[in-house]
Prior knowledge:
Chain A is an alpha/beta fold. Chain A is 41% helix and 20% strand. Chain A has two domains: 6-250, P-loop containing nucleotide triphosphate hydrolases (Rossmann fold, 3-Layer(aba) Sandwich); 251-287, no CATH class. Chain A has helices at 49-54, 82-88, 105-115, 120-134, 138-141, 151-163, 181-198, 209-215, 233-238, 240-245, 252-262, 274-286, and strands at 6-15, 23-33, 38-42, 67-70, 73-74, 89-92, 169-173, 201-205, 218-223, 226-231. In chain A, helix 3 (105-115) packs across helix 4, helix 3 packs parallel to helix 6 and helix 4 crosses helix 6 (151-163). The longest helix of chain A is centred in the middle third of the chain and has 18 residues, at 181-198. Chain B has one domain (3-170): Arp2/3 complex 21 kDa subunit ARPC3. Chain B is globular and about 50 Å long. The termini of chain C are far apart. In chain C, strand 1 and strand 2 form a beta hairpin. By secondary structure, chain C is mainly α. Chain C contains eleven helices and two strands; from the N terminus they run ααααααββααααα. The longest helix of chain C has 32 residues, at 210-241. A two-stranded antiparallel ribbon of chain C has the order 1-2. Chain A binds chain B through residues 100-107, 110, 120, 123-124, 127, 142-143, 145-148, and chain B through 164, 167-180.
Amino acid sequence: MTEPLIAIRDLHYTYLPGTPLQAVALRGASMEVYAGEIVGLIGPAGAGKSTLLQHCNGLLRPTEPGHVIVDGQDLADPTVDLRRLRQMVGIVFQHPERQLFETLVGDDIAFGPRQLGMSRAEIRRRVEWAMRVVGLDFDTFVDRPTAALSGGERRKVAIAGVLALRPRVLILDEASAGLDPLTREEWQEQVRRLNADEGMTVIVVSSDMEEIAALAGRVYVMAEGRMVDEGTPAEVFAHTDLLNSLGLGQPVTSWVLGELRRRGYDVDPYAIRLEETVEELCRILRS
Amino acid sequence: MNGTDKLVRRVVTAGVLAAIAILLGATRLGFIPVPTPAGNATIMHVPAILGGIMEGPAVGGVIGLVFGIFSFFQATIPMFKDPFVAILPRIFIGITAWLAYVALRRLNEYLALVVSAAVGTLTNTVLVLGMAVWRGYMAPGVALTVGITHGLPEIVVAVIIVVAVVSAWKGLARRRHARL
Amino acid sequence: MQDFALLRHITIGQYLPGDSFVHRMDPRAKITVVLLLSLALTVNTSYLANILLLALCLGLIRAAGISLRYVLSGVRPALPFIIALSLMQLAFYGNPSVTSRLPVITFLRWGPIFITSSGLQLVLVSLARFVDLMILASILTNTTPLAHLAYGLEDMLKPFGRLGVPAQEISLIFILALRFVPILAEQLETLAKAQASRGADIGAGGRWRFWRTARAMLVLIVPLFLDAFRRAEELIVAMEARCYAGGRGRTRLVQLRMGWADGIAILICALLAVGFIWFRKSFPF
Lengths: 287, 180, 285
């Protein structure tokens, strides 16, 4: 079996230890992410999802027991090259549109590559590529002032700014929160393409279960600083009691299948992709 | 826009910018290390300059007042425990910045921003040190040295920030094209 | 910048709950007393007046039930600076404008170094004054909730309303500012993390490459201001939708009451302060 690209083992973390503001965030969390996967991470607010993922690019360093190993390198080692690490693992945070600071779109997207000291030609190539991936036309948008963009366009610029570093792992921490349904679909398509065409490994945190079901190949469920469930989306979303006890929903398809099964219909509870569910419904309607 | 709208706008803008002034003072972010004996250049007065430029002298003045009161409460240096040094001079930062801005705006927006940031910063440095001398905390010679070592880097930083923030907010582009 | 969490957890307003006489005083009375006493402090340079004022301040802090050690604990980081400044004053500033009836004795005169008894007096008086001011400031901040301070300030500015000072607006600005600090602090932490993820080197550059350091700050400062402006726009819409029309005639949740004890406290302190100011030239030493 191949080595995981990111391995988190029994990680503990406490914010501001030894102060009145001390808060335990992680209590032995473990997670493995293999190259080329899309992994979903769900859990109630305060479960420690962001804390966990911020360990992956060295924004937080392990201080207590536990290991974070990225591409074979243990991040507890103080000599880790953070610059290289952050180029390899990119994080898009919630409301990324708030992090723009340059006046012109092209300059903001070029910030990351420029920090890495790349050649002008390479920077331009990366900006063109990143803008194409997020669906912004290069010639139309590159010289626009960021102040003149809509909220959705600003968010695309910000995401392109992270993509321009060409990370091997892309972490999306509630990055799609607040998108309208149409944009959301376009967004999911872009994430899928990044994964399929560019081979980018993706970790998605979302409170939108439909998004997790649509994107992830594997899902972790987190609560109170540790993992409480893991499996394919179909498996995880079939654990209705656990999800309800954590106050998490399930995708509509998963709910419909569960409810039909409870009422005695013979449906496959794991057929949670929309097309599969429709197939199942047609099947029982026909019979 | 009627009178009430303007009032609400001014009150809220002043509140938010005053919050940034407090935030800059409470974190290390408000202090930029400089190669002079002063050690650090402060940028806590920048919100007052921006308030003056964007919403006029009253807003700029109030933000300065909040900055002053905050530095009075946070102070660990004797002369800043004196309201005449810590609070009073700060009120004028936003007012002089606004004066400089409206005087030059018609000529050139950039020039107006640069001069107004410099004037606002100078107001802070000169009035605070002037008060310190007048109240007997500092000898005039010491004040002059401090003024130069603190004042110059602070002007540079304030100009950079004011120009960057206002042009990003209003979408004023210095260049037509991105540097690609 | 290693510890991003420090950007978020900042303390402002150090109210320590308590039930002392000083805690129960009306905030307006407290502000008045503190202003009067600070004025008295800054005009007096004689030893005797400063000893008396120091005693008065120590009495007040004892009455408030706050330990002097706590009040002065914030000073420690600035101690080297204070000592250096005092030594400089002492060494080079032998001819200060201290009003004293004591004869001026020159201890040492050697090159630029000029140490006199009046220079020494200035340094000692400055230090005492500093302790007094720390105590007075902490009487305001440690015994009064910030909202009460803001309301007190608003009431005191009201008489200036006729001169065009909008007291209630100023107090609302204070309250808004205090509400926004934690929100913007959290935003700042996220920004720092987001920009670091894009390869920003915040705090790098050091003191000698100051231009670079300043440029590196922009990736945090600019979006912080832009975010604040955007939040302001949202709040403006919300306030207009709720028909906020200025402070006049608005009622408050907290009603301030001035009791007889407040009156007496103001009277005593006012008399003391005026006495100290009036007789500032008459203290024997």
